[in-house]
Amino acid sequence: MTELQTPVIDSPSAADAPAVQAPSHPPIADPGPLGLAGFALTTFVLSCFNSGLIKDGTLEAVVLPLALFYGGIAQVLAGMWEFRKNNTFGAVAFTSYGAFWLSFAGYVKFVAPHLVPAHAHQATGLFLLAWTIFTVYMTIVTTRISGLLLAIFSVLSVTFVLLTAGQLQQQTSLIHLGGWAGLLTALLAWYGSFAGVANNTWKNKSLPTWPFSG
What we know:
Blueprint: H1 32-50, H2 63-84, H3 88-111, H4 120-142, H5 147-169, H6 172-202
Pfam family, one: Gpr1_Fun34_YaaH
InterPro entries: AceTr, Gpr1/Fun34/SatP-like
Region (Disordered): 1-23
């Protein structure tokens, strides 16, 4: 008696299986110019007071809404979009400096008024020192990105160093120098924002940013 044979059904091999396409995401606009603009404008306004260009300290309150909304929230959003674009440097920089401005606004509004006046400069100096350390190592990273970012972060590092030393040593002259360095930082960051918007809108590279090769 002939045994019944169970038919063998060949399973499709991996080579025959259709390739699974990774889901595509629509491109997004470059968030860099927004982040640079938010940082530049807020830095410029605060530096007008730090440099002594505006001597009426009561007017310094104008910095707080800028630090909250433009330097703070807008920059954090730019950082989140840089994560979406897989740009680690931009994501860390914009998110961090956005958080800097948010924390600065909170410090000035809620913390500084309750500190002992004779020792308040130490807290401010420590706050600035921590951001100096962060800025210095981010500056090192820019040496492989572009000349423009290297210039922005180098001058920003000088700004933080001068402001930190001015606060810890209670030297108004150092704070004023830090304010002038901050004004230069703001102008460089504004140029970076302008170049990013213009080059993307005009579809060319007419405004240089001096990228480093390799």
